[in-house]
Amino acid sequence: MQLGWLALFYAAYFAFVGLYSPFLGPYLKSIGHSLDVIALALGMMQLMRIVGPFAWGWLADHTGNRVRWIRLGIFAGFCFAALAFWFQQTPSHLIVLVLLLNLSISGLVPTSDSYAMERCAGCTGKYGQVRLYGSLGFVLAVLVFGAVADRFGFGSYPFWACAMLLLGFVAALKFTPDSPRAAGIADHSIAFTGSGFRRLLLPGPMPLFWLAAFFMIFAHGVFYAFFSLYLLEFNYAEMSIGGLWAFGVMCEVVFFALQTRFFKRLTLNTWLCISFAACAFRFSLTAAFPEYGGVMLFAQGLHALTFAAHHTATISWLRENLPANLVVRGQAMYATIAYGLGGSAGTFVGRFAWELGGPASAFAMASAGGFFALILGWRFTIASKHTSSALLPG
Predict the structure, then answer these.
(1) Are 305 and 255 within 8 A, CB to CB?
(2) Which of 394, 389, 378 is nearest to 191 (CA)?
(3) Fewer Cβ neighbours under 10 Å: the N or C end of the chain?
């Protein structure tokens, strides 16, 4: 039953993300806010991904109670969303409320991923079957609210956004509180010494792991920010653009559903390197052949590897290689380094690449990010083997 509540939580949270990312800008424009205010409001999610996840992860690990902080985070997000969207706010008040909203929910994914993986007993297959509901929630929210907005406008946006956060809170109330963790679990994986950031950043292959994560999401930062605009440059219809996005997410869902059999055959390090290679290949195709719809469809299909496989392999790798009392902070560090810093850098640098070298150069740069991640992944695979050998009893 716990997995069912987790599935509902993921569906509700990512349905909110599906409402927030594509539709917050048009909603704010519909109630009279300027483009500068809209851009600043949309930037709060990326900004809070830099500072928020590690703070929430520290609280969860320090208290040993992830469920408490999941509930608090999503309920606070609901309250700030209600204040921001239900009532007409001045631009300054709106920005502050949106900042607090994103700060509240910024730690939900790493904390809930850690909780879900534990409830799934470390089984990537079970985790994937739960996590896919997040992807389905995102797609359903985009499609349903897109149709609602097209017919009735954006007046109901506050209701839908707040309802999804409230539904996620109701699901979180059903989570079983954490049990005391056994001391020493996974402490043999990497020789961790010191405290704080040093324990997460420095031991063994960790610096290479974090750099690979940074470049992987750096590449996707370009994709998320510019893919739709890129297709418009080549005269794709809005319906075709939406179809390509939906196809990528559905491929992600299929991989999550079937990943048990995939992850049994290859190691986590191998899957990480496969996802990095797929990233480099995917965005090289996107840069080189944008006018061919079939190639774009194939490239979007690789989202199953560049997101779903990479995400599961990453959180599984962290669970296996970090001490038990650092797992949540490790996953929060991943969110900060990869999605916060890497995603923001990809968006920022991609904009300049687009202006200086044209649209294709932005995606060529994304492909280079995947290639750098592959080199680093190969190196930390070797480093992990050496570290493991050194830790074996002689």
Answers:
(1) yes
(2) 389
(3) C
Phi, psi of 212 (to 5 degrees): -60, -40
Average pLDDT, stretch 236-242?
A: 80
Tokens of 366: 């994304």
**Mind listing the pLDDT tens digit for each residue in 350-394?**
888 998 999 999 999 999 999 999 999 999 888 776 654 433 333
How many whole angstroms separate alpha carbon 199 and alpha carbon 323? 10
Burial pattern 221-231, b for ≥16 Cβ within 10 A else e, equals: bbbebbbbebb
Segment holding 134, helix H or strand E: helix 124-152
Q: Are 60 and 69 in contact (CB under 8 A)?
A: yes
The two tokens of residue 128 are: 């994937």
For the chain, list the strands marked E by DSSP: none
Look-up: residue for tokens 């799934």?
Answer: 120
Q: Tell me which amino acid residue 210 is.
A: W
Query: CA angle 252-253-257, nearest 5°?
Result: 120
